[in-house]
Amino acid sequence: MNEWIWRFKLLASYLYRAKYYKGHGVHSPFAFDLITNVIEGKNDFYCFDKIESLRAKMLRDDRSIFVEDFGTGTSRKRKISKIAKVSVKKKTQSQLLFKLANQTNPRVIFELGTSLGITTSYLASVNSNSKCYSFEGSEALIDVAKKNIEDLGLSNVTFIKGDINKTLDSVLNEIETLDFVFFDANHTKEATLNYFKACLKKISQTSVFVFDDIHLSKDMFDAWNEIIRCSHVKVSIELFSMGIVYFYPKLQKQDYVYWNCQF
């Protein structure tokens, strides 16, 4: 299918299906609380200003670095300022990740795709006693992210360098349970499903998985729909840029579509 035709059909479908606004029409107490108090919650947290100051610094940084991309198999020079503008999750999305993680106070966090370490900083700031593993193929990006993490005084981040297809399983073997995962690496159906299936082996009842760019392409949207059909997934929230899944067995199976252009 032509990509533009697919995007038009997706928008029409999304507008038709997006029927929950600030929790209205949501009967599940869990989902209602999630939408009204977490996704739509307006609370600012202690770390937000410091991390956003760091983002502003990255947006002004005109240094060029050589970025390896294991997903596409390409490598090229890129300005840090351009990466910060185009590739890093925007403020509202980054802060939503913090709030989603803060809701369950995770002990073990995985971030697949480090970039400049902005979302890493948000996730690691949830709980200083947590272990945050950030996977990234590009050594140059890890170097920038490490410096940013150090500048923020965070000491609970471990960077895993290399092709995630080769590094993910070895780290999974070292942990007992996986509490929170942000999937933001190779944005293809095959890779996304492979990462999901690998991480699924380590879920607990309270685990939360967040998938980035679920509407980036038909390929990614197909992956998202396959994920929410998984028997382990009890509740899913489909935002425009991200998708969130919960596994708590006592929850009734329900898939929500929530329209909000911020997310």
What does this structure look like?
- This protein is an alpha/beta fold.
- The chain is built from 10 helices and 10 strands.
- The chain has helices at residues 3-17, 29-39, 48-59, 80-86, 91-104, 118-124, 139-151, 164-172, 189-200, 218-228; strands at residues 64-69, 74-79, 108-112, 131-136, 157-161, 178-183, 203-212, 235-238, 242-246, 254-257.
- The strands form 2 sheets. An 8-stranded mixed β-sheet has the order 5-4-3-6-7-9-8-10, sandwiched between helices.
- Helix 5 packs parallel to helix 6, helix 8 (164-172) runs parallel beside helix 9 (189-200) and helix 9 (189-200) packs parallel to helix 10 (218-228).
- The radius of gyration is 18 Å and the shape is globular.
Characterize the main sheet. 8 strands, mixed
- Strand content is 15-25%
Apparent shape: globular
Fraction of residues in H or I helices: 40-55%
Short description:
The protein has ten helices and ten strands.
